[in-house]
Amino acid sequence: MKTFVLALLTAGCAWAQSPKSFIKVEVADVRISPQDNAEQVTQGLLGDEVQLLEQRGDWFKVFVKPQYRTAQGYPGWLRKDSVVKEAPQASPAQVVVSVPEVSLRSKPEASAKVLQKAGLGSSLALAGPYQKDGWLSFWVPGVKEQVYAPAKDFAPAPETPVTDGREIVETAAQLKGTPYLWGGMSYKGIDCSGFTYTAYRVHGVTLPRDADQQFQVGIPVKLNELKPGDLLFFGDSAKEITHVGMYMWDGKFIHASGSLGGVHITKVDHPKYSAIFQGARRMLGAEKTLP
Prior knowledge:
By secondary structure, the protein is mostly beta strands. The chain has helices at residues 4-8, 165-173, 192-202, 211-214, 271-274; strands spanning 20-23, 27-31, 40-45, 49-56, 59-64, 74-79, 83-86, 94-97, 101-105, 114-119, 123-132, 135-139, 147-150, 154-156, 185-186, 189-190, 219-221, 231-235, 241-247, 252-257, 262-267, 277-282.
């Protein structure tokens, strides 16, 4: 059993707040305009708080608050049936899904009914105090009863960011083979910056959602100084960053590539990528990881 649960859960931890708005589905498509065929710009994850700005038919204009594009969050349009307005019902103690997907069940049993699912990077509120036989309990938006999942599938929401980039690489590597999806944020489909954003999010480091802004933060590093977890940026120029990947080790990086169809491992000196390499950034230990 992970000891972090004991540190997070205390008796009498219920809290009450005014209703807020949250993503209530595993993954919610966020589009540039209120149409199903509009460009997808990102996705919200189960439990993400959203700020509602406007309603137009079956759509909400929102900021997805955990994802930085602006100081308010990531702007876009969500279908209103993916959002719920409700007051948080549990302890503010949070844990983060650390595997590609976890089933949230009606009872702490592997055979119990699945009430919802959550993907890598989703931050969920513990509904303790509850822990038994390796299971945790949660409140999730849109589900009125507690749900349960194995503790091994979660990491504590760290008070301080991780310091070992290998941990971030190991998290990212779980998504190897995931198909590419523009604006994607999950094992069902992910894009290059969603891939790096999500891996860092699991370990307590908040990056901008998009590659161009990720390039603007962190510590510049040379190719011969790369460490696991460092980010590599590509594009026609430093002002036109169009791709990002994560350095692993042994001269290789892992990335979500549209041309390769998904998450692959590639050599840093691959001619295609060497020709458009614009620089590397180290996020761990950086003074700031947001613009």
